Hints:
Blueprint: H1 2-16, H2 22-37, E1 44-45, E2 50-51, H3 53-66, H4 80-88, H5 93-102, H6 106-114, H7 117-135, H8 138-159, H9 162-169, E3 187-188, H10 193-203, H11 212-223, H12 230-246, H13 248-257, H14 274-309, H15 323-329, H16 341-369, H17 375-388, H18 391-400, H19 407-416, H20 423-467, H21 477-483, H22 489-511
Antiparallel strand pairs: 1-2, 2-3
Helix pairs in contact: 2-13, 3-9, 3-12, 4-11, 5-7, 7-14, 10-13, 14-22, 16-17, 16-18, 16-20, 16-22, 17-20, 18-20, 19-20, 20-22
Amino acid sequence: MAANNNFFTAILDLLFGSKNDPQKERARMLRGVESILKKRGKYFKVGSLQVQPGMARFFHDIHTVVGPASTSLQNIMKSQQIRAIIIESFLSKESMKTINLLRSDEIEKAYVQMRNAQALKDHINSGIEEISMVLSSNQIAAQVNMIYSYLVAFAEFCMFDYYYMLHKFDDGYPENNFKYKPTFHSTAVSGIAESLDEFLHIALGIMGNVDWNKIFAILHQYRNVELINRGNWDKVLASTRDMVNEETIQLIIRLAKEDPYYEANFKPTRVDIIKPYLASLKDEAKKQIGRIVSLERSRLMSKVLQEIFNTTEVTVFLKNYNKEKNNAMLVGKGTLEYQYHEVLNTAVLFAYEYLDKDIKTLVDLLILKGKWSQNMHYKEFSAAFQALLPSADDILKFDATLSEDSTRISRLRNALRSVDKDKFAKNTVNGILDEINSDARDVMMKIAGHYMTLGRYLKIYIEDYKLQLKSEIIINWREIEKGADRPNLGKYMVELYTKVYYLVQMFQQFSSK
C-alpha cells in the first residue's frame, strides 16, 4: 500500500511539481514567467533570452524627453537652493518678506527707514519665530519632505544612464544626441539585466500620487527655464506607469536572474530638509542683524566722538584690546571679534579730558560750596563721581591682562593657527573671545552705571539752577556762581551734562550682548 502511495505521489510531482521541493517549485514558477513573456515578444524572446528593439524604443522615447534635463539636475541632491525653494513654497507672503530681508540689501533699506537696529532685530526675530512655528507642524514637515523625496526620484529618473543601455541595442548610438534616429537590434539580457534592475527601482519612485504641477513649478524657479516639456513628460510618465504595472521588466529580470521571487522595491529618500534650513536661516539672521548692529554702533561712535571731543580721530590708549590687534588677528577668520574696544578707549579718553578736569572742578564746587537741602542728593552724586575716578586705570588694567605673553592670548593665537582647518579650533577661539568680551563688558557696565547716576543728578541740578531763588535742592546758586571760574555756570553744567549724556548713550548702545 505504501508503494502505491509513493507511485501516485511521484506521478503528481511530475505533472504538477512538488511544493515540498524548493528547486522544483522555483523551476515551476520560472516556467510560469516564461509563459507570460512569450506573449510579450515585442519586448523579449524567451528562447534566446534576447531583449527586443521594442524595449529599446521604450527607453529611447524616455531618453529623448528627459535626457536634455539631466545636466541641469546633476547637483540637485546637494543643492541648498532647491531645498529652500521647496520649503518656501509652503510659506506665506509675510514670511517671505522676512526671508527676502535677509538675502539682499533690503535689510539696509529697512534700517534706514526704521533707524533702530533693535526694532529691526525684533521684527526679524519675530518673523523667523513665525516661520519656525509653521514648519514645525508635522503635516507641513511631511509634505515638504515628501516633495523633496519625489523631486530626488524625478532627478534620478532623468539622470539614469539610458545611453549605456541603448548602446547595447545600437552600437552607433551617440551620447548626448537626442535627435539621433536609431536602428535597434536585439541584445542579450545578461548584458543589461543590472541596468534594467536599476531602472525599475528608480521608476517606482515616480509612480506615487505626485503633484507634478508643484514639482515643475519648483524646477522652473530653480533653473528659470522649462527643463522638460510638460506634455512630453506626461506621455513618458504614462508609458512608464504602464510598463511598471504590466511587470514586463520585472518578469524579464526574474528570468535573467533565475529568481522567480525577485521584487523591485522603491526606497524613498528620507531626509529632513527643514531642520538644516531653519538653522541656516537663523545663522543668516544673526549675521545680518550683527552687521546692522555694527553699522549702527559705528555711526553712533562717530557721533559720540564728534559731540564730545569735536573729532572722530582720537588717541588710542588701549595697547592690546584695540582695533589694530582685532584686525590683525581676527578679521576674516569667521570668528567672534573684539566688541567693546572703542567704548572702553572712549571712556579712558573721557576720564582724562573731562572727568579728571572739568567734571571734577564742577563736583568740588557743588559739594564744597553748595548748601544742600537734602544730604541724599550730594552723597549719591559724590559717590558716583568718586567711583568713576579710577575708571581709566581699571580699563587699562583689564587691557594689560591681554598682553602678548598672557595665557589667554597665547591660547588664542595657538587656536587661530588651525581655525581654517579644524572646527574645534574655531569653537576654542570663540570661547576665548567670548570670555574676553564678557570681561570687557563687565568693566564697561560698572562704569556705565556710575555715569548714568552722575548724569541723572547733573540734569536735576540744571533744572534746580534754573529756579534760582526758588530752588529746592541747592539753595545758594548765586554764591556758587561767584566762586566758579566760568562766567555762566548754567551753560557750563549743560555742556558737561551733554557730554555725559552722549557717553551714556554709547554705553547703552553697546550694553546688549
